[in-house]
Amino acid sequence: MREDNKKDDEIYQSYINQSIQDFENSQSIDEKDQRSIIKKGKFMGLITSIMISLAILLLIIPCMTLGSYLYYAIGGKANHLIEIATKTVYVTEPNISLEEMELEEHIKFFSMDIQFDVFKRIGKEDYKAGEYLIKYAFDNPRFPERTILLERPLPKIASMDSNRLYHPDAVKPPGLEVEWDLLKNLPDGTVSEVYISLNKLMNAGELEKQLGKNVEVRWVAVDTGLEKKQTDKEGYPIAPIGYPLQVDHTTWSPFNGRDQTNEEVFMDILEFLRTNEENAAKIASAKSLALEERVPYIEKNGIYIYGAVVTGPTSELRKLQKNEVIRTMKVGEVKLWNWK
Amino acid sequence: MELEVKNQKKQHRSKRIPTVTGFLSFIIAIISLAGLNIALIMDYDAFPDFFLIKLPLAGLILGGIGIFTQKRSRLFSIWGILLCLFIYIFTFMMFGLAWSINPKP
Question: Best interface-test mutation with B: which of A18, A25, A59, A80 has the largest number of B CBs within 10 A?
Answer without folding.
Answer: A59
